[in-house]
Design a protein that fits this description.
Blueprint: E1 10-13, H1 19-30, E2 34-39, E3 50-53, H2 59-72, E4 76-81, H3 96-114, H4 118-124, E5 127-132, H5 135-139, H6 145-165, E6 170-177, H7 183-186, H8 190-199, H9 208-219, E7 231-234
Parallel strand pairs: 1-2, 1-4, 2-3, 4-5, 5-6, 6-7
Helix pairs in contact: 1-9, 3-6
Length: about 240
């Protein structure tokens, strides 16, 4: 049986209690990794992963999270910066609070997550980072100037980190999902869903597990060992 080489690897997933994050946690556990995940309000039900209540907007909380993971599970090999929110509205109606909330979680949250972990990964000369971006960060989306800005920034951050981290044996890649069957997509009115699906060549929304497989591949020290600075789009050819 071919292995992705994640057995026993310690991996942190932010926002791992629901949606795409929960699917990533489940897949990594299935592949033999030791997984810790963060959540803001409620933990994932029935998960054997280490759940830690920590808000990615709080740098002190994320430093404590990193220390707890290394103390309880061991040296961190991989990080999946997944935590994200949306506060959608047409730009003239977008409030400063909604702009700041999305920036703080989706962009500053990546920095707060990685700051306490990357130096140790550099010291160990091993590691992999996956940032979850979005099709919105690739092509924009109506009503999502704040969200799209953070997801585009996640790609720029990933590519820059990859250039810096390569000399230390650490890789950084991004996954940009299209429209995936999560609570965010389920909340879209049916008529709008039909219009979106008509634009997708695959003629369907994606499943969280399909994104999880992409993340697992990019974390793999065997399957993707020479891949860094890339964006893996999981969108049914909606945007290429």
């Amino acid at each position: 049986m071919v292995s992705l080489g994640l057995e026993g690897k310690v991996i942190v997933v932010t926002g791992g209690n629901r949606g795409i994050g929960a699917a990533i946690v489940s897949k990594l556990l299935e592949l033999g990794a030791k997984v810790a995940y963060t959540y803001r309000s409620s933990p994932a039900p029935d998960s054997s992963a280490l759940g830690i209540q920590a808000d990615v907007t709080d740098p002190v909380a994320m430093e404590k999270m990193a220390a707890q993971v290394e103390a309880e599970l061991g040296p961190v090999y991989g990080v999946v910066a997944n935590a994200g929110i949306n506060r959608d509205n047409f730009y003239p109606k977008l409030t400063t609070d909604d702009w700041d909330a999305v920036i703080d979680t989706n962009l500053k949250g990546i920095n707060n997550t990685l700051k306490p972990l990357i130096p140790k990964m550099y010291e160990r000369k091993e590691g992999a980072v996956v940032c979850i971006s979005s099709i919105s960060g690739d092509r924009g989306n109506i009503g999502q100037t704040n969200y799209a800005a953070t997801k585009a920034a996640a790609i720029g951050f990933t590519k820059s980190l990859a250039l810096e981290a390569a000399r230390y044996g650490v890789r950084a890649n991004a996954v940009a999902p299209g429209f995936i069957e999560t609570d965010m997509v389920k909340a879209i009115p049916d008529k709008v869903k039909e219009r979106i699906i008509a634009e997708i060549p695959a003629r369907r929304f994606g499943q969280p597990e399909e994104v999880a497989w992409a993340v697992a591949f990019l974390l793999s020290p065997t399957a993707s060992s020479y891949i860094t600075g890339e964006v893996l789009r999981v969108n049914g050819a909606h945007h290429t």
